[in-house]
Amino acid sequence: MLSKRIIVCLDVRDGRTTKGVRFRDNVDVGDPVEMARHYYEQGADEIVFYDITASAERRGILIDVVRRVAATIFIPFAVGGGIRSIEEMRAVLLAGAEKVSVNSAALRRPALIDEGAAAFGRQCIVLGMDVLRVGVRPGIASGYEVVIDGGRRPTGRDALAWAEEAEARGAGEICLNAIDADGTQEGYELEITSRMASRVGIPVIASGGAGRPEHLRDVLTRGQADAALIASMVHFGTWTIPGIKSALHQWGVPVRLRW
Amino acid sequence: MIAIVDYRAGNLTSVARALHFLGFACRVTGDPGVLREAERILIPGVGAAGAAMASLRENGLDQALQGAFAARKPLLGICLGCQIVLGRSEENDARCLNLIPGRVRAFPDGLRAPDGRRLKIPHMGWNTLRLRSRHPVFAGLEEGDSFYFVHGYYPQPEDPACVVAETEHGIRFPSALASGSLVAVQFHPEKSGRPGLRLLENFCRWNPAGGTGGAGPC
Question: Is B140 on the interface with A (CB under 8 A)?
Answer without folding.
Answer: no
